[in-house]
Structures are given as C-alpha cells and as structure tokens.
Amino acid sequence: MEFRRLGRSGLSVSEIAYGNWLTHGSQVEEEQARACVKAALDAGVSTFDTADVYANTAAESVLGRSLAGQRRESLEICTKVFWPTGPGGPNDKGLSRKHIMESAHASLKRLGTDYIDLYQAHRFDHSVPLEETMVAFADLVRQGKVLYLGVSEWTAEQITRGAALARELRIPLVSNQPQYNMLWRVIEEQVVPACEREGMSQIVWSPIAQGVLTGKYRSGQAPPPGSRATDTNGGANFVKRFLSDDVLAGVERLRPLADQAGLSLAQLAVAWVLQNTNVASAIIGASRPEQVHENVKAAGVRLEADLMRAIDEALGDVVERDPRMTQSPR
C-alpha cells in the first residue's frame, strides 16, 4: 500500500480506501462484511469511509464492530452527515447545527470511537446558512471530536465559499468526496482546480463505476446474479446510467488495454483515477474479500501517457464531463 497527503494537511491516507456504501448492513451479511474489512486491513488499507445514512445508520455500526480491537491510531475513520436518518423528522437531515451535532455524537457511538478523523458534509445544504454549518463543524474540531473536515459533491463555487470560512475559523477543510471514474469526469473542469487552489484533495467514490468498469456487464446479456444491477436495495438505480450499449461497448474496448498493462479491468480503472495528482484516495467497496484483494493491487501503479490516451480514445463520447452534473438537492 502507498499513502498520500490529504490536501495541504499533515494527514496521510491510503491510496485505496475501503467504503461500505450499499454493502454493510444491507447487501452483505455481517460475517462477510467483517471478512472484507479484514482483507482490507491485511492489504494495508488504513482509511475507512462510511456515512450515517448508509443502511440508515447500520453501516456505521457494522464498520465499528469490524474495526474493534484494531489500533485506533493506525486508522483513518471517515464518515458523513446530511441525508435523512432516523424517523425522518424535520431536523433529521441537512447541515443545521442541531443535526450536525446530534449526528456526530451518534456516529461516534456507532463507530465505537472517541473521534472521527474526517467528518464530511455529504452534500451542500441550500436551506441552511453556510456560516451555521461551518461554525458547528468548527466546534466539533475544537472539542476534539473531529480532526479534519471534508465535503462531498460540492460545486467549485460552494467549495470556495466553504474554504474561505474554514480559513476564517482556522479549521482544516482538506477534502472533497466526488464520484470520479473513467466514465464520469465532471469534476475535472471546475472542482479539481478549485480544490487545488484551496489545498484540498479528492477522495473519490465509484472508481469502477458501480462495477461497470470490471467488464462484468455485457451488452444484450442479463446482469450477473448478485451484481449491483440486481440489487433491489438501491444499487440498481445507481448503476443503470452506465448500462447503455454504447458505454458497454466502450468498456469492451478497454479489455486489450488492460491486458497490455498486465492489469484486470478493475485494477486499470482504480489505477486510472489515482493518476490524477489531486486524488488522494480511491474508495473501493466489496461484497467478497477476493474483490478487495484484486482492487488493492492498483495502489502504486503508474500508467504511461500512451495508455492514458488510448483509454480516452477507446471510450470516446461516452464519457460524461458536464460540470453541472455536480449538484446537491434543493
């Protein structure tokens, strides 16, 4: 495993992070979830990402139990706040001071820890003054319950505003967590330059496009049993955007390029996002330990410029680049 600094902060994270969205507490039984976490730890992964909304808080609890007994100082535990949790009352969502404070304390209990390494705003809240949100985060930092702060799927303008307040409050806003992969590059034009100016890194989710970039889905064929596209708990909704015939044809054109590099398609996809110097870590999920073992091999891989150009040519027009696709609900 290799490690990168998160923005201009002193915090190092593993190039491959383990995330449990759509798996722990939902798609995967706890015994299997623990096996995947153990596989990640054995491979040198130190960064673990979750959120209170995943499986309506159950994912945090599973991760907390899976990491119990590990040396806390050797881990970077990351979670998020924004989406509705609990019974869905008016204060059970968003980035108000009340919801942030209550959510942070509940996450600490579920994760079985005294502090969160990286606490992230899961989306931008248009209904709450940004100053209220950032002051609440600042208080958690000053109380020692949160060490670093991040955002997720914020626009460049929102990141710039948040970073200005963070400087004023003297708190470490160090990362953004966007979707980013060969097929989804909407952060490249505006978000990445804004983060570079503000001293922030990307911790990216969906580096293999919900499994599409593994090559498991074939045009004209039913999705493999047990795959994300068959998950009725929400996974199918996220993967369907990548299942068009033209996208799947583009992925097929990547196969010889992966073979040429001596990588699986999944390893090529994860290695590709790590070529972006503003990316500190790529989050992988897994329903089986062998998926972890395969994907972590992308750490430290360097792709030649000719191969990067060939990937662009193979995918052609199926790549989504529109920066307007980064947005939060109103």
TrEMBL record:
The protein's matches in InterPro entries, at most eight in alphabetical order, are given as: AKR, K_chnl_volt-dep_bsu_KCNAB-rel, NAD(P)_OxRdtase_dom_sf, NADP_OxRdtase_dom
What keywords are annotated for this sequence in UniProt? NADP, Oxidoreductase
Q: Name one Pfam family in it.
A: Aldo_ket_red
Superkingdom of origin: Bacteria
**Which GO CC annotations does the UniProt entry carry?**
cytosol
Give start and end of each NADP-dependent oxidoreductase domain: 15-314
| A GO molecular function held by the record | oxidoreductase activity
Q: Which PANTHER family match?
A: HYPERKINETIC, ISOFORM M
Family statement drawn from the similarity comment of this UniProt entry = Belongs to the shaker potassium channel beta subunit family.
Output this protein's name.
Putative oxidoreductase, aryl-alcohol dehydrogenase like protein
Species this chain originates from = Saccharomonospora marina XMU15
